[in-house]
Structures are given as C-alpha cells and as structure tokens.
Design brief:
- This protein has 135 residues and is of the alpha/beta class.
- The protein is built from four helices and eight strands; from the N terminus they run βαβββαβαβββα.
- Helices cover 24% and strands 36% of the residues.
- Strand 6 and strand 7 form a beta hairpin.
Length: 135
C-alpha cells in the first residue's frame, strides 16, 4: 500500500552545522539526496527534512525567505511514543545548540515540549495517550 510522504524544506544558514545538529538528535542523513547545497534528514520512513542552503532554497521560490529567528513561518509537529521520548528529543536538541521555546504542555493525556533549531525553525514534540484517542 502506498504511503504518502512529507518533505519539509527548510532554509539553513550553515548546512554543516545543521547536519551535525540533526544527527545529534539521532536522525540520519541520506547521502543519495545530499550535496553541498542540501541535506536530506531522515526522520522516519515517511518524513524527511530537506535542509537547503539559503541561496539554493531561493531557487524554489520567488518569495522572500523568512528569518525564522524573528518570524514564524511554520510550526513542525512530530509525535513521540512516550512522555519520556518527548523529553529525550527536546533535551538532545537543547544540548546540540537548539533553544527551548514555549512552555511545557501537560494535559495528562497529552504532553508536549518544543525547541527551535539552529536557524529558529520551531519543532513541537508531542505524546498523546493512545487510549484517549480510541475513546
């Protein structure tokens, strides 16, 4: 059965630093789709973050590239398998040079935290109790 994929394209200032950041979070780089202009960060079988140098990113749009450190252009939300995995990933991001952002959201059945990556893109990591979804 076909599974639709998502490719999130993000402009980055320093491609090598961004690659290091995401590998420190435990993600891998797909060398087949990476070069001096882009890095393909494999988040899951169906989610890929394409990190593009700003000049290369600009070839795909006629719009001005947002400065994600001062302007919110997208909120990227990823699920986690447990509360502990939420904390683990966000803590890794902070240790790798990311910045905690927002407040921890704890609603009992749902738990989430967020971080900004090196270029200011916001990543929200959330766990939801599967029994709350089923009911």
């Amino acid at each position: 059965m076909y599974q639709q994929m998502i490719f999130v394209n993000l402009p980055v200032t320093d491609l090598d630093a961004s690659k290091k950041f995401f590998t420190e979070l435990g993600y891998s780089i797909n060398a087949q789709f990476s070069d001096e202009n882009a890095a393909s960060v494999v988040i899951s079988d169906t989610i890929v973050a394409m990190l593009l140098t700003k000049p290369f990113y600009a070839t795909f749009t006629k719009k001005q590239i947002a400065d994600a450190t001062t302007t919110s252009e997208v909120l990227i939300a990823l699920s986690a398998e447990s509360r502990e995995k939420v904390d683990e990933l966000v803590d890794k991001a902070i240790a790798a040079g990311g910045k905690a952002t927002g407040e921890t959201q704890d609603h009992g059945f749902m738990y989430g935290r967020a971080f900004d990556d090196l270029d200011g893109h916001t990543w929200e990591i959330t766990w939801m109790d599967p029994s709350a979804i089923e009911g």
